Structures are given as C-alpha cells and as structure tokens.
Amino acid sequence: MPINVPKQLPARHVLEEENIFLMDTDRATTQDIRPLNIVIVNLMPEKERTETQLLRLLGNSPLQVTVTFLHTATHESKTVSPSHLNQFYNTFANIKNQRFDGMIITGAPVELMPFEQVDYWEELSEIMEWSKTHVTSVLHICWAAQAALYYHYGIGKFELPAKCTGVLSHTVANSTVELVRGFDEEYLAPHSRYTGTSVEEVEKNDKLLLLSSTLDNDPFIILSKDEKHVMVTGHLEYDDLTLADEYYRDRNKGIDAAVPKNYFPNDNPEIKPLNRWRSHAHLLFSNWLNYYVYQETPYEWK
Questions:
Q1: Does 258 reside within a domain?
Q2: Which domain holds residue 9?
C-alpha cells in the first residue's frame, strides 16, 4: 500500500531504506482514487519509533493510505521535540469535525495508574466517544486495548505479580473470522505490560469475541461483534530490538528487570534477538485494513 506521508517525516527515510512503498502529497493527488484516511493517536513516548513501526505495517496492501497523527493536548510529551509535534501532529480539536475510515490508538506507559488518574483520560474518552460516529473501525494496542475494554464495555484491568515481557505463543479460537484469517494455529507475538485482562469477563460479554489467547489463556486479540473495535493486548507492531531496548533501559535505571521470555537466543541478552512475529504483524494489519476498514467504510461520508 502506498502511504502518503510528509517528505520531512523522519520515519520516511527509514522506510525508504526498507523499500516500503511511500508517496508524497504531490504524487497522491495525481491518482484518481479515494485513499483510506487513517488517524493514529500516538500515546507512546518514543513517537518517531512508533511512527515507523505503524507505517511499516500500513504499507502492506494495494490501497492508498493517508495518515494523520494525533497527540494529546492535555499531556506534555518530554521525549519528543515540540518542533516534531508542531510539524507532523494535530490535536483532537483540529480534526474532530472530520471523519476517518480507520483509527489506531497506541499503547502508553501508564497502565499501573487507574484510568481516571491518567492526565489525558478525559481527552481520550472524548476521542473514543467521537470515534463511534466518526470512524469506521478502531484498532487499540496494549494499554489502549485495556482502555477501550474499560470505556466501551466496563471491563477493568488488574496488576500482574510481575511484568509480562517477552515473545509469547498464542492460539487462534476461530480462524474463519476475517481478522485472523491466514494466522497459524499457534504463533508468536511480543508483550510488554504490567497489567492483565480477565478472560472470563471478556468471554461472558455478549458484545465481544475472543479471537486469540496466549497459551496461559490470557486474552490477546478481541473483536467487538459489531466489528467496530479491535483490541490487541500485546505489541505485534514492535520491531526486533524494541523489547531489548526496554530491557536495557530499565537495567540502566537500576530496575531489577527480568530478561524477556523466549526473546533473546538462549535467553542471553548479549545475543541479538530475531524477529519471529513479523509475518503475523503484517497479516493482522492487512486483514484489519481490508475487511474492517476498506470493505466497510463508505466511499463518501454523509
């Protein structure tokens, strides 16, 4: 999928080196098609890294995509320059009168806090409420998945005895559902979280479908029955070194961080890890874009 991104966006240079199909606005306007308009609410501290990860996965389909990045106005980011936000990001106030075919809400390092104590919770709640009428389908990642389960379906989170970090094995409950079409019966995906979601609460909710779980029966991919919301409790979008960088960061801070499970070869942090989830990451995003965004969104919003 050719992605329409600004020429100056730092992620563009990384993706061009990977031969990801990109285009700029000048070229996009010469194509007589309607692109999919995707808004990404980027709550991650390392915004540029997350931009690259998500754009890489949005580029694996024959459709044209235009991406709008959103940051929260009620939270001051300390890990990205104001000039980057000013140049490449919007706030909700600037786009709330628009309609989008799809929306992605990223994770955030706030999961140990009660939802209402997160400084941008009121703003995010407004965005999630707005998405009911202004977005065809929403993909929520990690903490955002828990936030969506809490806001839309009243399902809370609970603190784990220890951080869940590593590359875990998962099974698929129903491979005929389009979102997981083509998935292996058992596949790998990264996790990095301190909290969990009750599988019993998900399964008893008549508005939700549990599509995939870890081998320990923790929910991983959840789909609302109206196909409006996709909740993914892990990080299929992570690149090969993201978990390693998180581990080294915590160790450098003096945190007694556990080595991510099933990640480093021979569990040795001195050996470069391999990406063993890339194909399923691309498959999840392409399935979401095709079946839940492109196939469902109107050509012209009324």
A1: no
A2: 3-158+196-236+279-294
192 is in an annotated binding site: yes
Along the 302 residues of the chain, how does pLDDT read in single tens digits? Answer: 455 666 667 766 666 665 555 555 555 444 446 789 999 999 999 999 999 999 999 987 777 889 999 999 998 888 888 888 889 999 999 999 999 999 999 999 999 999 999 999 999 999 999 999 999 999 999 999 999 999 999 999 999 999 999 999 999 998 999 999 999 999 999 999 999 999 999 999 999 999 999 999 999 999 999 999 999 999 999 999 999 999 999 999 998 899 999 999 999 999 999 999 999 999 999 999 999 998 888 766 56
Q: Is 142 one of the annotated active-site residues of the chain? A: yes
164 classed as catalytic: no
Please report which helix (H) or strand (E) contains residue 40, including its range: strand 36-41
Indicate which residue of 170, 237, 246, 280 is catalytic: 237
Q: Which residues pair with 67 in a beta bridge?
A: 38
In this prediction the pTM is: 0.89
**Token pair of 210, please?**
């549990």
Question: Which one of 48, 84, 140, 142 is the catalytic residue?
Answer: 142
Number of domains in the chain: 1
212 is in an annotated binding site: no
| Residue 76 a catalytic site member | no
Tell me the CATH number at 37. 3.40.50.880
Within 10 angstroms of residue 127's Cβ, the number of other Cβ atoms is 21
DSSP letter for 66, please.
E
Beta partners for residue 90, in sequence order:
70
**Beta carbons of 210 and 202 less than 8 angstroms apart:** yes
Asked if the structure places residue 9 within a domain, the reply is yes
Cβ atoms of 233 and 213 closer than 8 Å? no
| 131 belongs to an annotated ligand binding site | no
